[in-house]
């Protein structure tokens, strides 16, 4: 995986093979950040990266100037890798090792962008808990956006607060406002 733009543009990051991850493809990530770039100034936002895995999305935000980034993952190896990479690149990323659903239940801080990249094999009911918890607990700022990455075979358009979706290859991003 590589960082697409910003201070660390072009830098490659190689995650250990033993991590249980499926990083967002460079093509899909570039398209996603083009959408975000049209709505926000990266240095003015706070980001919550759920199911952060390798930290791919967090690094992209950090490279583009975002200072307030929190990455949450249940896997210790993923959190350790994100911490090591953030330190090597001098990125300001806060990591939290936690079950994402338990974390969302307790979280009180609002964010501009909440990005979730859960396992593609989640049941639809499990996917639906993400926007449900985010909006029930009022975790987005007024102009905030929840983005859920999922397989093109999963349809989240019936969920409350759904706005639109974009498809890139086998990846799909659903946007909730």
Automatic annotation (TrEMBL):
UniProt entry tagged with the keyword Methyltransferase: yes
SUPFAM superfamilies in alphabetical order: S-adenosyl-L-methionine-dependent methyltransferases (SSF53335)
A single GO molecular function term of this UniProt record: 16S rRNA (guanine(966)-N(2))-methyltransferase activity
Listed EC numbers: 2.1.1.171
One Pfam match: Cons_hypoth95
Parts of the chain that traverse the membrane: none
Keywords: Methyltransferase, Transferase
Top-rank taxon: Bacteria
Signal peptide as annotated in the record: none
Record NCBIfam families: 16S rRNA (guanine(966)-N(2))-methyltransferase RsmD
Protein name, entry field: 16S rRNA (Guanine(966)-N(2))-methyltransferase RsmD
Organism annotation: Winogradskyella endarachnes
